[in-house]
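Project standup — Tuesday

K.O.: blocked on the structure for the chain from last sprint. Re-posting the sequence here as requested.
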Amino acid sequence: MTPIPKRTLMAVNLFAFALCAAMILGGWWNYAPPLIPTTAQGGTALENGLPMTDKPDSQPTATSRPMSVLKQWIVVITAFGVKPVYLLVSLAVIIVLWRRPAPDLTALRWGLIWFWVGEQACSANYLGYGGQSEFLEYLHNFGMAAGFAFVTWALMEGVDHRLIRFSDAKDRCAALSLCRRCIKYADEPCGLRRAFMFGIPATAVLALLPLTADFKLTTYRCDILGASVCYSHTVASQWFEMRFCPLLALGCFAASWLVLAFKQENPLPLSKLLFAAGLGPLSFGLLRTFLVATFSDDLMWFETWEEWTELLFVLGTAFVLWVFRHGLLTHHEAAAAAPAAP
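H.V.: unblocked you, prediction finished:
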């Protein structure tokens, strides 16, 4: 496989940096402290058991809630056991992939780098600022979205070049038995390309799901083994997850479809890149939308299941690389010099 050109890789990462900076500045510019309605008793409406206003920018103040001992230990194990494990494993995988020139492994490396940066921002936010830093929360969210996009790109490149061999002009496509006649050898429309052109708008329909979801605003404090922890999911975070991510995905899907439909010379690499750039943020937005809808009244489980899902993602990535290490991690020169199996 031809390595990804350094200019292309630099341009993609610079675009990610610029997008992250724009989102941070946009969030600060549009963010305003919520107005908490008060009552005649001197407290907030939430503290006195009265309903909150229906305005979307109204966010309740942090009241105190009891938490069972079992839940407290789950929080501690997740924060000081699960998170350090997947951070160390992801860092180890990044080191292993550092000099691998294959396009799928390069994209996977950058995906894990963005993921690692985002999760480090999450750790710094909760350890240093009690989860109240908007800047670090934006960096956390953007790191996950960008990481998912790069991992999607890596998966598409790996399936294409290592399994299907659709983009390689000299190799036999694995779907030839389905198509019977291939565009590589005859004047025949490509079945996989037509399927991809249908799959792009079909995936775009899923981007409408977060756009139709309502925000869920909950803020409270809990004592966890003697330490006070604030649980909240801010309006700014939900704007990023349920509005910006799906809108970005729709734009990338539209560009991917147009490139595939109208670009005459070798449209697939750019189309795959744009599709992955949209599917990454959309996957992150859908995950957060599901967690918000399911655990809006108990944010402890929201954060716990997010951490365990990220652990499974990192361990799954490392496991696949280890199982197929002879084909994925062996240098091309050594693989070419090795004798063929009888």
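K.O.: great, moving the ticket to review. The beta strands are 63-65, 219-224, 227-232. The longest helix spans residues 134-164.
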